[in-house]
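Instructor's aside before we start: the two examples that follow are unrelated to each other. I chose them only because their records fit on one page, so don't look for a connection. First example below.
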Amino acid sequence: MALRDLDGSDFLRFAGEFIKKPTMTAALAPSSRHLGEVMTSVIPESGSPVIVELGPGTGSFTELIQDRLAGRGRHIAIELNENFCSDLRRRYPAVEVVHEAADQLPRVLEREGVRANIVVSGLPWAAFWRDGSLIQSIARSMSQDGAFTQFGYPLTRWAPAARKQFREFQSAFEEVQVSRTIWRNLPPGLVYFSRRPRSVGSA
């Protein structure tokens, strides 16, 4: 994240969870506000959308999503780390925090009787590498005009695993675009915008 944006308490919480569970947290610091603004830019300015946040962590994107919604729609956050869940519920009472793994998204939305209009993912890329079906599960849980955002890093964009992941985005969505490099993040980041899922299941 950008050093000038660093929130000491969030950094300590995030770093503490990384030390305890590095394979689950998979990053030492939360994302910067600059990255978050690009990640959440797909949220519509009107209507009552259903926004799903995957892996919200300490809430780097959560606060921005809440700001953009301004009381509209629903904001469902799915987080595997129980400590993060407790903290998110305390800090963001309007958010529906669900203690589940991301691959349970279809089941969570089926239970709620909704589809996601927007999915904002704070998951590490390793979460997708472990389960090649996760992207398809996300796509099937979305509305036909939905949009999915996932951050990555320019330094690894052309690595074989990242290129495979990009092809999987393309197989699941009609349109996939990549943002410019967001330098004010540690490390510098970028955002993948995937729009209009090719297959939509029943919610």
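Example two begins here.
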Amino acid sequence: MLKYYRSKDIIDPWYNDFFINHIESVEKIDDYTIVITSKVAKSDDELLYMMSLPSNGVQPRPVHYFASVKDENNDGMDDNFVRKYNFKTEPTTGPYYVDKVKKGKSITFKHVGDEWWGYNNRYYKNRYNVDKIRIKVIRDQDIAKKHFEKGDLDSFILAQPELWHEKSNTKAYQNGYIHKLWGYNEAVQGAGGLWMNTAKPLLDDLNIRKGITYATDYDGLIKNVLRGDYLRKPHGLGTGHGGFDSPTRIPPTFEPEKAITYFEKAGFSKVGADGIRINDEGQRLSFAVTYSRPARTPRLAYLKEQAKQAGLELTLNLIDGSSAFKYILEKKHELAYLTMGGGKIPAYWEYLHSVNAKSQTNNHTNYRSPEMDKKIAAYISEFDTKKKQSISHDIQKMVSDAYVIVPGYMAPFTREAYWRWMQFPSPVMTKDTDFLFSNGGYLTLGTFWINSNLKKETKTAMKKGESFDPVVIIDDSYKP
């Protein structure tokens, strides 16, 4: 595992840094015990969240599987690792293994069987119940919805307001064949919103970034496009980190007049015939926003129209799926409409350290600051939790003052539709339940199961034209 995550050949700077600079060693004591030694002193919370390796998506790696054919840098991994292993499936310690991959179409997981070692552990009891999980790639959401309502898919995400409020009331729902659930959680909300690439022309100007911030109407977007279902993130670096989140964080509001003041300070004092501001060289105040899903277009269109009030043009740069993230990683974007995941303890090095102001990193703003580098170093090395939280507050203020991320919105809930044969425990939600089925599946809690008798009953009722009572579950136990 150490060889794997320290190798440059896997092309993963975050794991390279974490395993080289944070972990000294991983040693086996006996068949049931390992020792993980940290390079720097860490509090109990940090040891729990950062050193508990499986919780970070890290798992033991089978050394016999990764044969090094070409290893010129002598790190124990093949120099052509990504090309050689990207679509191969390695042996696993988990409850499911990858059975089939149809590129661009589907990926199928199969259960390793009832003899899986994890069932001897109380934590895994009654989880990972289904024998097979197939995740299908259907690029058009409307087509995917039709597949679901025909019974070709067992569950479907209804996160978008129009799906929940308007497009999930067909006969299949009314007849009780398909159920709906809206469940709130207290899951960590990662960094995100509108990221500004400071390496691009004009975006290295603080006044321009301030202007863009006050010309971006996220609050209006939530109210008018998202039906008020979502909430505003208090900060671009996310929330849900307890004492690490500054209690004084307030997201910037939409103030076009204030934005104009900053744009004029940056030299954009004239307004063209189309209402977009220009400078003395005739350069238009225009930036492209890169995003990855067509369903987000109405949201970006709203921000685009509102930004015109400040003389700012936002052009929409839709790049499908993972290609968009690759485009952003390569730092080709100007503005990126993007939300990242996050952990219980906020991470700053990957997003803000100068060493990551380059391609293939999560420093999506290309932000560089010697002062920030020192703060991050102090944050990483600080043992005392209260002092570490105080440094975290300082870092968040510095990011706010740098105006490199416009805080976006967050959805502290999951909304899903599912056929009535899909079952789950009661109560439905825990604080950390991100999804019930589709996006989480066995990869998270994996507590659902399929009732084959209900499936047969439902299919028979559909053929006979019989119905059941409609079911809509609202679990607001963890509603903010």
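The mean pLDDT is 92.
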